[in-house]
Amino acid sequence: MKIENYLISRLYFFQDNPAAIFWYDSAMLTKLKVSAFELKERFGELALELVDLASTINIKILPYQVDSLPHFSRLKEEQMLSAIEVLDNYVGIFKRTVEKGYRVNESKMVTWLAIKSLGLTPSSDLFHYIEEDSVIEIYNAENIQIFRNLKFFEFCSYTLDDIFCRPWPSLYRRVEALTEEILTLKDRIYAENRLKTYKVDHIPPHEVQEVDSAFRYKIKTEGKYVSTLFDSSKRIKAVVVVENASLASPPLSMREQEECLKEYYARNANDSL
């Protein structure tokens, strides 16, 4: 598939677009005659490319559970193109990491390249707090995850079809009181509008539940730091979350995995094109 007859324009995709992750130079859609099959093929190719990059450090990423890409297939054409570009940018961060002579699990470099790709400025002390085992996530002002390092996937049974094509808030569940506390912290940080790294020591370690993944992992997460990212007008555009994570549920046996996959296929089979 060729995506080249685009007029380059600065576009913003907000929460109503479940695939909106980066602020990027993207298509001013000129009605390319591209079939849904070709779009799915391109998304699948990029997903497999990311899987290959992660496999170099023995991290397993699920590209999709159903070949028809049911969640991608539900998107409108503009959202499909957005999801493809977002995934392409994401894969590009790890490819540039390798080109610079680093491994894809060297999170300080990966995080720096992600922030650079967003055109944002980090707090000067952020990288002092990123450790080898840190899970790194970046969230925008709408509380949508717009980046995650590969460590994240050690505790994730969602597919790339899920992560890039579904509304982020629908994927996870935690105790409501903790969710409210986290949102209160976020509101305070945005109101202060300081380029700063905040230590998160008042929110206790807690479990987060995958709502609709294949294996429905329970993850124990402990937030360590939240660090703001400024745009060119010196306003907070996103935040970096540095946390520790581990699986709270025991590993599934092969039989249990097979049963979970059968159930997942049954839930999604009727939604494919």
Class inferred from helices and paired strands: alpha+beta
Estimated helix fraction:
25-40%
CATH fold-level label:
Beta-Lactamase
Question: How far is the first residue's CA from the last residue's CA?
Answer: 19 Å
What's the domain count? 1
CATH 2nd-level architecture: 2-Layer Sandwich
Instruction: Please write the string of helix (H) and strand (E) elements.
Output: EEHHHHEEEHEHEEEEH
Mean pLDDT: 86
Classify the beta-strand content into a percent band. Answer: 15-25%
* Count of DSSP H/I helices: 7
CATH class: Alpha Beta
As a whole number of angstroms, the C-alpha radius of gyration is 18 Å
Overall geometry? globular
Q: Summary?
A:
The chain has one domain: PAS domain (Beta-Lactamase), CATH 3.30.450. The chain is of the alpha+beta class and 273 residues long.
Task: Write a structural description.
It is built from seven helices and ten strands. With 273 residues, the protein is α+β, with helices and mostly antiparallel strands. The chain has a single domain (7-269), classed as Beta-Lactamase (2-Layer Sandwich). Strands 3, 4, 5, 6, 7, 8, 9 and 10 form an eight-stranded antiparallel beta sheet that branches. It has a two-stranded antiparallel ribbon with strand order 1-2. A hairpin with a 7-residue loop joins strand 8 and strand 9 (218-230). Helix 1 (36-55) packs parallel to helix 3 and helix 3 (77-99) crosses helix 4 (107-118).
